[in-house]
TrEMBL record, chains A, B:
<dbReference type="InterPro" id="IPR023606">
    <property type="entry name" value="CoA-Trfase_III_dom_1_sf"/>
</dbReference>
<dbReference type="GO" id="GO:0016740">
    <property type="term" value="F:transferase activity"/>
</dbReference>
<dbReference type="InterPro" id="IPR044855">
    <property type="entry name" value="CoA-Trfase_III_dom3_sf"/>
</dbReference>
<protein>
    <submittedName>
        <fullName>CoA transferase</fullName>
    </submittedName>
</protein>
<dbReference type="InterPro" id="IPR003673">
    <property type="entry name" value="CoA-Trfase_fam_III"/>
</dbReference>
<dbReference type="Pfam" id="PF02515">
    <property type="entry name" value="CoA_transf_3"/>
</dbReference>
<dbReference type="InterPro" id="IPR050483">
    <property type="entry name" value="CoA-transferase_III_domain"/>
</dbReference>
<keyword id="KW-0808">Transferase</keyword>
Length: 386, 386
């Protein structure tokens, strides 16, 4: 089957998470991604758990469908080979600290002299310019500096990191989107260009209307746990054996919830008669609902509340969502046969394309698996001995 | 200036957040986005605060650069006009509940008969197929069902929603990426296609290695607050007037931190002599660090710790990140002149393209502002009176 990006060749200098997830998104769509790895050890994530037969599940997930060549970027002959590769490449992606590629002579300014059609994306913590550009980036720092941590968690608890590396993942997504826009532009005009993505900018962009609450109303959004800012009861509630979501956003749904709860006189209570009143007396209402929920398991409660016409859902743990029928039907976990690890279940791709579905052609590469295949012809061309 | 998507025409049936953010990403890159709105009231978010001269900051942010036409989708003449528009469109995007567009005769199957080159993306809570497809979607439900809420927050507190609508925002990003991949494919082959994006799949995809910890090791990741799963001290800590991040991932950084803290004998303490030992005695170490931090403000502590060579950052509140020099230099807030609201600062775009930077040609449209302009020619063609 023809894949959308099968004519696209990506030179991938990325390591760890943000960069590799970006190039994974391109590989999933058919791009030939050539991952340049440090000789001997490769991407740091080859050493990150979980492991299966000593192969990293972390690395395997992020680097499926890519090729690996070992090249020492401090060796001028390796740089010469890379410059040969650049001539035939469409995209370069890197996530070193700003300045590193320039020192190597592999920055956009240098490479566009070799191939003016190149699309070159850099992902970093704070971007290529700006006051913090040279600071080290961690996901926790991106979530903290981007404003998300300040509004995640409960008012009475400290600011909180969201439970996965959203700074990396969102930067990867904006970068993949940016690369596709730049490739599309190149199709029309022949013009390549440079793309600069910062993790902090990416997190800040995810804050949506929280930002305008400040710029327009000078309100500083605070931590409000899981509840809805202007509707109630719309929150996470404790049932007998775990937590559930109940989502009531108007009076009609509240009346339904009262019926489901056996009509304990709530809707006649002035504290709960309007959405605004309910939000003002949210803690009292929550206590009443959680008291009622103590008689039900999560499964019972979610079923009973949905049957009564009010949106409710469980809060799935990672094992539960992995084992859920939804995940199976949507192919959100895919089994990969790896030559060393054997069978491994890894995260799928949520972009469901009808005519060119995601095909993962190969498992993640062994370190240097494609060194010989890829550089053979360039060795002759550059008379280089690697 | 030439923008990458200036030849692309998008018919935008989306409302609220996920769909409008996706079409905003396309409009920012130059696409002509024609937003089809309910006569009289339009997109619900026109009624969402914050307001400036009664114009919604929420709507203004998400719908910049788009055109608005009022069309009643229950009116067959409106459907006829839409079908005329489809003939000249490149992309259709909608985020109704699955089935709604089919009832209107505007599903992909119907529209590809009119224009086989159309790229058509649907965004929904649970996707177009799967066991929960018909359930109503809220961001809270997507974060809960997608597994993120179960790992966000502290072990001793309930599962927690991340503080912004990540289910919507990530689905929008995957959709924009998918649309660009499909447009690129169409450039090569002439073939349009259908794209199905689920908010729950999008959240699940953001969980990165948390998923493989379960599929490979059968470990169910739990809530660990803001701390690092295998390194310490790498967490959020309380200083005198607020919280800071300290990120120590190895012994060398820990030695530096001890020096910064005036060497209180920590590194000689067997409880803290290795990363593993520190992680095991994390609470004791945190208490010691926070006790020391009580003598410093956030600003003093971050400066002192960074000067000593250890990564540290403040946790910026929304006002702080909005007012920060980084945000100004990176143009992450842009001022828009709106004909009714006046000047309004809205979120910028984190994709920094060197040759075709984001240009927002127009403010968000007034309801129906472009109805006459857009449908005039189709009225003649279809002899329709709207």
């Amino acid at each position: 089957m023809k894949q959308p990006l099968e004519k696209i060749k990506v030179l991938d200098f990325t390591r760890v998470l943000a960069g590799p997830y970006c190039t994974m998104l391109l590989a999933d769509m058919g791009a030939e991604v050539i991952k340049i790895e440090k000789p001997g050890t490769g991407d740091d994530t080859r050493g990150f758990g979980p492991f299966l037969n000593n192969e990293s599940g972390y690395f395997t997930f992020l680097n499926r469908g890519k090729k690996s060549i070992e090249l020492d970027l401090k060796n001028p002959e390796a740089i010469a080979i890379i410059k040969e590769l650049v001539k035939e490449a469409d995209v370069v992606i890197e996530n070193f600290r700003p300045g590193v590629m320039k020192k190597l002579g592999l920055d956009y300014e240098s490479l566009q002299l070799i191939n003016e059609r190149i699309v070159y994306a850099s992902i970093s913590g704070f971007g290529q310019y700006g006051p913090y550009s040279q600071r080290p980036a961690y996901d926790l720092v991106a979530q903290a500096m981007g404003g998300l941590a300040s509004i995640t968690g409960h008012a009475e608890h400290p600011p909180t990191r969201a439970g996965s590396s959203l700074g990396d993942m969102s930067a990867a997504l904006y970068a993949a989107y940016g690369v596709m826009v730049a490739l599309f532009h190149r199709e029309q005009t022949g013009e390549g260009q440079y793309i600069d993505i910062a993790m902090v900018d990416s997190i800040f962009s995810l804050l949506e209307s929280n930002v305008m609450r400040y710029t327009v109303d000078k309100i500083v959004p605070e931590r409000i746990g899981s509840r809805h800012p202007i509707s109630s009861p719309f929150d996470i509630y404790k049932a007998n054996d775990g937590y559930i979501v109940i989502a009531v956003a108007n009076d009609s749904l509240f009346n339904k919830l009262c019926r489901i709860m056996g009509d304990p006189g709530l809707k006649e209570d002035v504290r709960f008669s309007t959405d605004r009143a309910r939000t003002e007396h949210e803690n009292e209402l929550k206590a009443i609902i959680e008291n009622w929920l103590q008689a039900y398991t999560v499964e019972e409660a979610v079923e009973k509340i949905n049957e009564g016409g009010v949106p409710s859902s469980p809060i799935l743990t990672i094992d539960e969502i992995c084992e859920d029928e939804h995940t199976r039907v949507r192919e959100m976990l895919i089994e990969m046969e790896h030559p060393v690890a054997g069978k491994m279940k890894i995260l799928g791709n949520p972009v469901k394309l009808s005519k060119t579905p995601v095909v993962i052609k190969n498992p993640s590469p062994l370190l240097g698996e494609h060194t010989r295949e890829i550089i053979e012809k360039y060795k002759n061309r550059t008379k280089i001995n690697i």
